[in-house]
Amino acid sequence: MAKELIRLSDCFVQFDDDIILDHLNLYINDHEFLTLLGPSGCGKTTTLRLIGGFLKPTSGDIFFDGVRINDVPPHKRAVNTVFQKYALFPHLNVFENIAFGLRIPRTDSSGKKKVRLPEEEIRGRVLEMLEIVNLKGFEKRSISSLSGGQQQRVSIARALVNEPKVLLLDEPLGALDLRLRKDMQNELKRIQQQMGITFIYVTHDQEEALAMSDTVVVMDGGKIQQIGTPEDIYNEPKNAFVADFIGESNIIDGIMRADQVVEIFNRRFQCLDKGFQKDEAVDVVIRPEDVDIVPEDQGQLRGTVTSVTFKGMQYDIIVDFYGFKWLIQTTDFCPVGSHIGIKIDPDGFHVMKKSQYSGLFGDYSSYSEEYEEISDVDYDPEAEEDQEGGHEE
Ligand SMILES: Nc1ncnc2c1ncn2[C@@H]1O[C@H](COP(=O)(O)OP(=O)(O)O)[C@@H](O)[C@H]1O
Ligand SMILES: [Mg+2]
Predict the structure, then answer these.
(1) DSSP secondary structure string, 139-180?
(2) Atom 13, ligand 1: residue with shortest CA distance
């Protein structure tokens, strides 16, 4: 059974007149890998700082193992933090960087005497950590001789050597290149499972969040938008913000005509969603990979291809349906200008309630122009009229 370890109860944070966290409610289970995901400025780091004890909420409470810890200072919490900037000591070697926290005298169980860990124990624990982060044999190396990825491993080892119950990781892989980041994602997941501790991970990278987490918390504007497993968040986004932030989504105005019947573009489609009011206005998500391309006369909808981008695994095509542009991913090549039909299975629709985010996301009208703009170094917006379609012939 999952056991609750940390709870943020109605946490509100305000700086001057700005609301930074707006009544956050969240619990984190023991041994869980939980990720806070959202755009820059949405309040992820602030949430971590509350848990780490570096910031007190303006109002609301934080509990650890059922005990209120609002007033417990950071070093007395069973929590450690790994930052994007490694903050290693450049003048100490790898061994001493990791051993640093272990060498600080600590009060013994009677609470009266300061004691030091025996050197042998320190050595044993540091070497064990080096093995866990795959840096066996690196103990004498200087920090400056290490790559970025290796430095990050040292900072992870240093945070873990004190055996915290919870590790807070604030965009720890942000400075690494893509390939290394992917390797480190797997490593971190393995370390978390091997050590059996709780990870609270912060990222703005949705792919990273989906790949690593047991639970994803999607945030925007200081508010939690959705909490769920990666599959929940992807397949059942709660609103247009979540649908757009996690993966690619076409988001279309629709009307629920009945349970499992949704209308878009004045046509009715079978879907799996139910429980809406009759004729309720809704947002309908259709993922680019859930659209099948068929001959024009067999399509449920018909459209015209306006741009094609080769992506290796598939083509990303933009298709104009009655003035609204969709992104569709397909392995069939459809040239620009071709007329196609599409079919969508009932489970290809996901119906959401209208929200403050309705109408803001999920239309790919500007996609092709943006794409041309970044791919064309000589791009001149003034001359756009003259060269329209020039790259597509
Ligand atoms: N000490 C502070 N004083 C005033 N505003 C702050 C402070 N720290 C963070 N903020 C603001 O709070 C918002 C959320 O910040 P942060 O939690 O760092 O976001 P994230 O980590 O999601 O990018 C941002 O708008 C930021 O400018
Ligand atoms: Mg941050």
Answers:
(1) TT-BGGGS-HHHHHHHHHHHHHTT--SEEEEESTTTTS-HHH
(2) 41
Q: How far apart are CA 305 and CA 275, in angstroms?
A: 35
Residue 46 in contact with ligand 1 by CB distance below 6 A: yes
Cβ of 15 below 6 Å from ligand 1: yes
Q: What is the mean pLDDT of residues 77-94?
A: 89
Cβ neighbors of 71 (< 8 A, separation 6 or more) are 56
Question: Can you list the domains of the chain with their CATH numbers?
Answer: 4-235 (3.40.50.300), 240-383 (2.40.50.140)
- Which of 294-308, 314-328, 334-348, 364-378 has the lowest average pLDDT? 364-378
Ligand 1 contact, 39 CB (< 6 A):
no
Say if CB 102 and CB 122 are below 8 A apart: yes
Q: Please tell me if the CB atom of residue 41 comes closer than 6 angstroms to any atom of ligand 1.
A: yes
Phi, psi of 330 (to 5 degrees): -145, 150
Amino acid at 29: N
Give the phi and the psi of residue 190 in degrees, each rounded to 5.
-65, -45
Nearest atom of ligand 1 to the alpha carbon of 40: 23
Split at pLDDT 50, 70, 90, the class of 367 is low
Q: Two tokens at 69?
A: 């810890």
Structure tokens at 40: 């820059």
Query: Residue 61 in contact with residue 68, Cβ under 8 Å?
Result: yes
